[in-house]
């Protein structure tokens, strides 16, 4: 086997990206898991509904990039904690629409400044040009990855 066919995981871009994502997620998770007692899934749902107002569980799962079961469990727990409430979906009687309660909105408004501050701390190592290149690179990589997924279907 030649060296060109060996995979060095530490230098493999998808691995590097996944590793960085996990470290950054853990750093931000410290904020909402501790005192606020939210899971990653619950935090994502909270943040999504703070911006979208009414969504079905299915659409929340898609937007949050979550599997059906973790989404369902998180929603159930958030309903029990009275962070969410259900509304009738007039477009589709088989599903409900979810929205934040006043308590959910209050929690989001406590958390959002804290996670945004952590984001600022994390990206403070980049200058404006580096940050612009990073965002542009992410957009290009997302398009390319989506193209490869779509071409397989």
Kindly describe this structure:
With about 150 residues, this protein is mostly helical. The protein has one domain: Arc Repressor Mutant, subunit A. Helices cover about 65% and strands about 10% of the residues. It is built from six helices and three strands; from the N terminus they run H-H-E-H-H-E-E-H-H. It has helices at about 15-35, 40-50, 55-65, 70-80, 100-125, 130-150; strands at about 55, 85-90, 95-100. It has a three-stranded antiparallel β-sheet. It starts with 12 loop residues before the first helix and ends with a helix.
Structural domain tally: 1
Spatial strand order of the main sheet: 1-3-2
Q: Report the CATH C-level class.
A: Mainly Alpha
| Element-level helix/strand string | HHEHHEEHH
**Biggest sheet details:** 3 strands, antiparallel
Tell me roughly what share of residues is in helical segments.
55-70%
Distance between the termini: 33 Å
**Strand content bin:** 5-15%
CATH architecture group name = Orthogonal Bundle
Specify Rg, calculated over alpha carbons. Answer: 19 Å
CATH topological fold name: Arc Repressor Mutant, subunit A
Low-confidence segments = none
**What is the overall number of helices?**
6
Shape: globular
Could you say which structural class the secondary elements and strand pairing correspond to? Answer: mainly alpha
**What's the CATH superfamily, by name?**
Winged helix-like DNA-binding domain superfamily/Winged helix DNA-binding domain
**Could you report the average pLDDT, rounded to the nearest whole number?**
92
The total beta strand count reads 3
């Amino acid at each position: 086997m030649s060296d060109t066919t060996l995979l060095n995981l530490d230098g493999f871009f998808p691995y590097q990206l996944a590793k960085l994502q996990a470290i950054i997620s853990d750093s931000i998770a410290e904020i909402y898991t501790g005192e606020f007692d939210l899971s990653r899934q619950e935090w994502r749902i909270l943040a999504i509904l703070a911006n979208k107002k009414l969504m079905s569980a299915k659409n929340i799962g898609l937007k949050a990039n979550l599997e059906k079961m973790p989404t369902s469990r998180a929603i159930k727990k958030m309903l029990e904690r009275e962070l969410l409430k259900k509304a009738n979906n007039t477009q589709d009687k088989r599903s409900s629409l979810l929205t934040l309660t006043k308590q959910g909105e209050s929690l989001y408004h406590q958390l959002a400044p804290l996670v945004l501050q952590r984001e600022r701390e994390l990206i403070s190592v980049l200058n404006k040009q580096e940050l612009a290149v990073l965002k542009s690179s992410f957009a290009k990589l997302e398009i390319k990855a989506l193209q490869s997924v779509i071409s397989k279907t």
